[in-house]
Specification:
The complex is a heterodimer. By secondary structure, chain A is α/β, with parallel strands linked by helices. Chain A contains four helices and eight strands. Chain A has a single domain, classed as Rossmann fold, CATH 3.40.50.2020. The model of chain A has no long low-confidence stretch (mean pLDDT 93). Chain B is of the alpha/beta class. Chain B contains ten helices and 19 strands. In chain B, strands 10-12-11-13-14-19-18-17-15-16 form a ten-stranded mixed β-sheet, with helices on both faces. A seven-stranded mixed β-barrel of chain B has the order 1-2-8-6-4-3-9. In chain B, helix 8 packs across helix 9.
Chain lengths: 179, 371
């Protein structure tokens, strides 16, 4: 296994701060904005965004957690593992910013959109991701991207976060012998 | 006499129309569905359904009537019953009255003629929600009542279904094949226990004493129990944090079995959090896998909350998982005789595949006693 770091802790911190600024700018403030992190690593990222936005705007943005276990399209071939979904309020009329660590095929975002709209009809849904690694299989794009990282299909993008993994780092890993 | 029109009103404003077949009153609760094909009498009297309006997905209910024996507690516990079709001409040698008569006799409303498939699909996609069954109010009145009433998760339902006083289970009151001389003392902490748990323990040579939910560890140990069982019950386990301390001080004192709500209390005692499932597990065909052996058991279930094993201490491990969603269905202590299951091993209704859990509980007691 060969791994190389593509984002350091400091770079992750800067990316989160920049996205926070973009969210405030794009939405002309924060009225009705709610951050919804996708489990597992989207949740700590959503919390960090909320914290960064709080420092910029002196306002608090509600944060929720969304589990997409039962909405995945590969549910028939792999056993789902459901974790708590915890939305702080009704989604009706809100601007929901969906937060995930890596955007890849777009399939989990598709699942999240379905899961979210089952809870109500948001005014708008936007997508924020720390890493966009390409290789989309669905017509989905992110509104806020921490870093675009071109990858090969055989590579893995690992996002490690303090809250879940002990330290902050994004790295690309591939099996030895693969080019 | 033509049946009176009735409505099921959901908190999101949806109205399902049908006809009344129980008491002509208005009653509200959390609307949940069970996929069990039979066993409506056991489900109606299961204390874990307190505060809930029960929807049966099987399209016909009441066809084998109501008898005197198949109750799981002393009264109907559901707030209301929703069915597609209610049979008013039951046929069974034990039947004494119809389902509608039974509901009416305990002032519980029932509504028939509802498209329970559409209703269940709604609950599966939007999650369980509050609802009211009414035949004496307009949908607007019922909706206003719903919006002002406390929500399911805000009520400590255990107090309403458990016992205030200790009592000894009388096996003669039930047709159990009794061992002549009970050799073991079991204390059941009654959070809303089902009779079949008592019957199955009595059949296995246990003298069963039930205590109120707030019984202290000292009170429990004063009865010199060979085993302690934390029972199923209704509502959010967060209301039972006083039992968490009791469980902690009982570890190592006697074998402990937690079932359903008792399992959630045990999970919390070992550091885990509990969370509300979107639409719960209710029915008689839920597949659960034993992590150690890989064997799958078909289980009866009735729970709306689950243990999130993330916070569990290293003393205890997840022993069983639900195959539909991967949630925790059982815990086992690594060194002490402590185990718990999220499903209903006592069935009633449901498959009897899992009564072995009671045999294991008895084995745990005997191992401690002989060791």
């Amino acid at each position: 296994m060969i791994a190389r770091t593509v984002l350091s802790a400091e770079e992750i911190r800067r990316a989160v701060r920049r996205i926070a600024h973009e969210i405030v700018e794009r939405n002309h403030g924060l009225a009705d904005v709610v951050l919804v992190g996708m489990r597992t690593r989207g949740v700590p990222l959503a919390n960090r965004l909320a914290e960064a936005i709080g420092e910029i705007e002196d306002a608090s943005v509600p944060v929720g957690a969304l589990d997409i276990g039962l909405y995945r399209d590969d549910i028939a071939s792999r056993a789902p593992h459901v974790q708590p979904t915890d939305l702080p309020m009704a989604m009706e009329g809100r601007t929901v910013i969906l937060v995930d660590d890596v955007l890849y095929t777009g399939r989990s975002i598709r699942a999240a959109l379905n899961a979210l709209t089952d809870f109500g009809r948001p005014a708008a849904i936007q997508l924020a991701v720390l890493v966009d690694r390409g290789h989309r299989q669905l017509p989905i794009r992110a509104d806020y991207v921490g870093k675009n990282i071109p990858t090969a299909l055989h590579e893995d993008v690992d996002v490690l976060l303090e809250e879940t993994d002990g330290h902050d780092e994004v790295r690309i890993a591939r099996e030895e012998g693969e080019q | 006499m033509p049946a009176r029109p009735a409505q099921l009103v959901l908190e999101d404003g949806t109205v399902f129309r049908g006809e009344s077949f129980g008491a002509d009153v208005t009653s509200a609760g959390e609307v949940v569905f069970s996929t069990a094909m039979t066993g409506y009498q056991e489900m109606l009297t299961d204390p874990s359904f307190a505060g809930q309006v029960l929807v049966l997905t099987y399209p016909l209910a009441g066809n084998y009537g109501i008898n005197a024996e198949d109750v799981e507690s002393k009264r109907i516990q559901v707030a209301g019953l929703v069915v597609h079709e209610a049979c008013d001409a039951p046929s069974h040698w034990r039947s004494e009255r119809t389902l509608g008569e039974y509901l009416a006799s305990e002032s519980i409303p029932g509504i028939a003629g509802v498209d329970t498939r559409a209703l269940t699909r709604k609950l599966r996609s939007a999650g369980v929600m509050m609802g009211a069954v009414t035949s004496d109010e307009t949908p607007e009145q019922a909706l206003a009542r719903l919006r002002s009433a406390p929500r399911y998760g805000e009520v400590d339902l255990v107090r309403g279904v458990s016992t205030d006083e200790p009592y000894e289970w009388d096996p003669a009151a039930s047709d159990v094949r009794l061992k002549p001389d009970p050799q073991r003392n079991v204390v059941v902490v009654d959070d809303g226990v089902k009779y079949n748990i008592m019957r199955l323990l009595a059949e296995r040579g246990c003298r069963v004493t039930a205590l109120p939910p707030d019984a202290s560890a000292e009170t429990i140990l004063a009865l010199s129990p060979d085993g302690i069982l934390f029972s199923p019950g209704p509502g959010d386990p967060k209301f039972l944090d006083y039992q968490v301390a009791t469980v902690r001080s009982l570890i190592g004192k006697a074998p402990i079995l937690g079932i359903c709500l008792g399992h959630q209390v045990l999970g919390r005692a070992f550091g885990a959090d509990t969370f509300k499932l979107k639409f719960g597990h209710r029915g008689a065909n839920h597949p659960v896998q034993d992590v150690e052996t890989g064997r799958v058991h078909i289980t009866a279930q009735n729970h709306g909350y689950a243990v999130d094993p993330d916070g569990l201490s290293s003393d205890i491990e997840v022993s069983q998982v639900h195959l539909n969603d991967g949630t925790c269905e059982g815990l086992r202590h690594r060194s002490e005789p402590v185990m718990s299951i999220q499903y209903h091993s006592e069935a009633s209704p449901g498959p009897l595949d899992n009564v072995y859990v009671f045999d294991r509980f008895v084995e745990m007691m005997d191992a401690v006693n002989s060791g």
